[in-house]
Design a protein that fits this description.
five-stranded mixed beta sheet, alpha+beta, 10 strands, three-stranded antiparallel beta sheet
Length: about 575
Amino acid sequence: EFFIDTYTREDLYKSVNAVYQNKAEMDRLCDEDKRLLNRLISNFQDNGLGLDKGARESMKLMNKRLSEISVQFKKDVDDDTGRVLFTREELLGLPETFFEDRETETVDGVEKFVVTTKYPDIIPVLEYAKRETTRYRIWFTNKTRCPKNIKLLQEAVELRRKCAKLLGYKNHAEFKLKDKMAKMPEAVMEFEHNLLEKLQSLADKEMEELETLKKADKEAVGEVYNGFNDWDFSYYNNVIKQNKHNIDMEELKQYFSLNSVLAGILGTYENMLGLRFVRVENTPVWHPDVQMYEVWNAEVNTFAGHFYLDLHPRDNKFSHAAAWPLRKRFVMPDGSFEYPVSALVTNFPKPTSSAPALLTHDDVVTLMHELGHVFHNICAKAKWSRFSGTSVERDFVEAPSQMLENWAWDPSVLQKFAVHYKTGEPISKELTSKLVAAKNVNSGMNNLRQIFFGLYDMQIYSTDEDLDVNKLYNDMLEKISRRKIGDKDTVWPVATFGHIISGYDAGYYGYLWAEVFSADMFETRFAKEGLDNKQTGKDYRNEILLPGGSRDAALSLERFLGRKPQSDAFLKSIGLTN
């Protein structure tokens, strides 16, 4: 609400606009100062300054209500944890480690294990539980959380439509995209639909294989095939990795103890970006699990900032993985700096009584990705906090971190820190080769799901029609991602789709859009010049991370690539070679 109150103040708008309209004054400003003035004017106008008083007050009330909706929606997602009781037999297929230190309850004399919808619980069940009824029960529990959020999203969509109309835009999507790389909804829709078309033949082959596996399982137990469902995908995706590539993801976890992985990834960033990290002990933190680090510029031994790591789940905590800039770097009036501070919050498994915290390879990729956001903030050198670090166009912000995921797939990198937690043996070349070979298993289906999210987001924020946000979500999910969800009137998965309520509204497409840039950056520079090439790392820091939003992302990309971005590397990276 502070942001809303600030950018609806007429006195501030008049002061800023006086400078903005003064050509002589503007000519004396540096490029970043001019960019700041342009952004400030845009913020004031986006909040109704320039409209008549009645319209302005109406917009202010609607924006404040949208702020309340966003806070409540996210709180509901974090607070509402589903819980299901299963017998050991019902959890057939789960590894022994899943049951270590797990809470149990006795029901009618039968011991049952407590399984929640938090990531460390639900993901293994969906990937390993042999019984479809088990997978369905935890899936259903997860997809029926936060029922009140449906009305909140419905209200948010309607309020955003009204605000956009007041400002003279066709819809909320057009309003939001004006400051992004895509610029117009039409560009997004063309991108999404072109990729959707390219993926169809690949997805056809993948779907045929998935269905064949499930049909065989049903026939083996004398059950009727009931279609391929959303709760089936993770399980059969895992089966294909085991059958085709002989890779056991549970075996792989034994090489990814959290402490070893964290040390290895931090070492990778130190080498790439010319940084040095120092763990700070006995410092005030918000929970005993939290770690704090100092960041130093290694070459010149100057302080660069701090970051916090909050890595394990707990009640009422943010339930996904994200990096937040707690304080951004900027230049003080006396020329000194306010140093940046970032926090990384995840929900990785905790240690058990017999083993350290063990990560899946997906967790390793997530850690690499999210730390990329942390160091985007730490390495910033913009003059104004407004442009510092990840304050770039929202359809570019994921690209730097997506590019860095490639290090988590490189055998030479993995062999530096992936060691068996019992024997200390480094991961073998054979196992890393299998992992890399399985990287694009079902990439067609996985990308169809991302396209679904992006198209749904654009649909609800670009239509003038009154729509049922839950019905549209369920219909589009089945049609685009090719996964059935049973009785569509009894589930509401959209109620936990937090991206489109706050931050990524009319912007979810940005994940795939940014992958075009991330793949191009990696293939053009690091893949050719070496992952450990210090000059390439320095160029990446200086041209991509350092400027932040102080210049257009397109210019930063051209400076790093030496040309305009191209999509060839992206299509190759997801298995579309033609």
